[in-house]
Design brief:
It contains 2 helices and 8 strands; from the N terminus they run ααββββββββ. By secondary structure, the protein is an alpha+beta fold. It has a single domain (7-177), classed as Porin (Beta Barrel), CATH 2.40.160.20. The chain has an 8-stranded antiparallel sheet. The longest helix has 24 residues, at 7-30. The chain is elongated, with a radius of gyration of 18 Å. The relative contact order is 0.13.
Length: 179
Amino acid sequence: MKNNTLKPVKIIAFIFFASFFITSSNAQDNLPEQKSEFWKNVRFGIGGGISTTNGFFSATLAPSAIYQFDKTFSLGVGLNGTYNSIKNSSSSTIFGGSIIGLFNPIQDIQLSVEFEELNVNQRFDNSALQDNNYWVPALFIGAGYTTNNVTLGIRYDLLYDERDSIYANALVPFVRVFF
């Protein structure tokens, strides 16, 4: 029998992540005209996605903030919340955070290093299978093409573990948007 007791928790978690981003972006608009030097260099971003096919559903929300030291170097933090399910099989709730460093050697090219730590809570519909809760790290190096405030690229997980990783393989495409 399927356990539906976590659905309200998942909905609350999703609302929390969404409201965090909305509040953060509104807080920027409500700051006085005279921003401190620190806040002039902070940029907020958001990542996310929804995927569905043949009984599979996945949704991710990933707000982030970086401090722009100069035109070439940024350092920041991010949050990640993901829910996915496979009809009549399993569901996973994934929460975690990351630290990211960005380097732009030239205006259109962005290199990145990102350490991510995620908690995976996996539940199976089949009682013969044991539910799982574990932490999984990832250390990405990446490269992307930047235009305006959007970067498209690919990153590689140096710590990729086929058994525990939430990603299908070590190469992961990305889209970054910072405002």
